[in-house]
Design brief:
Layout lengths: L2 H9 L22 E7 L4 E5 L2 H10 L6 E2 L8 E12 L11 E11 L5 E6 L4 E5 L2 H7 L13 H8 L16 H6 L21 H7 L3 E6 L6 E5 L2 H9 L7 E2 L8 E11 L7 E12 L2 E8 L9 E7 L1 H9 L3
Antiparallel strand pairs: 1-2, 1-4, 3-7, 4-5, 5-6, 6-7, 8-9, 8-11, 10-14, 11-12, 12-13, 13-14
Length: about 325
Amino acid sequence: MKKLLFILLIAFGATGIYGCSQKEDFSNVEEKKQFTEIITASGEMIGIIDNNKEIERFVKQLDIKSWNDMKQLPEDADLVYSYISYEVIDEPVFLQDETPLVHMNTLEFYISSKGEYMIRDYDQEIEAIARISEKAGRFLNAPEDLELNKNITANDILDEWGLDFYVPDNAIEKTDDIETARYYQGEASFTESARYYQGETSFTEKELRKTSKEQKIQFYGADKNTLLNEIDDISEIAQYLNGLALDRWEYADDAPNPEEVECQIVRFMLSRDHKKELKEMDTQILYKSDGNYYIEEIIPGEYSDRGEFITHYQVSEEIAKYILSYSE
């Protein structure tokens, strides 16, 4: 998975329940092509949510702010329902030839033997596991209370759309087959046993310009009081991102707190709501602890339903020195 894509999923409020933005403008909700299919653990189709207002209500009832991240599901967790969402994406950054594609996201709902409610939310590139509130659990455990269309199937709607599914990084050819898209894992997928950035990562100037015509990256010292370097040329930014070797970044859920901060890197892009203003999209803090290098990545709270979004990674000394070379 390209790290850029993960940032955009959250920052721009694109597809995926886990990254839904509370600040998203639903004024054009009726225009969105989307629906959610509900399936039992045994594979029985309960119904389809094809009313966009009802989908908006569904997302709000998930109480995302209360979710607590988990490394993995406990062994006694039983799958109850799967909520599979489909949405037409037409943002240029997600497309290869400007042709709209269908993005699919699955929210699995689990209940443990202790009565705890949990979810596993994923698409072909991103996976999140969390313990959720009793309010959200009760809601997901009662799909019959939703406004459902039981006279149509997912295939009926997809056939009407007549679009291919989105698959990551051109790892396979475009497909219009729902089963292929649903079960495709690909080189860039997350697995429960080890979560890494996988597959080669390559950024081009053309790709970055589709994301944001103007960008810049600022390099600071241990705090943001001392600006050491800044790059705003798109080709130079692409060169820097390619040198990060993101496929070698390892998730570090148990990373120690920052002790010896080496530098901070802040990236700016034009956001959807401020097309003429560069906005801070994420901050990466490179630090050292017990001889190992870590990166704490922070996405501002305005781009996430769950407040400030923080992720930790462990990186090699080689990668750390590469980053620090831009701060000299």
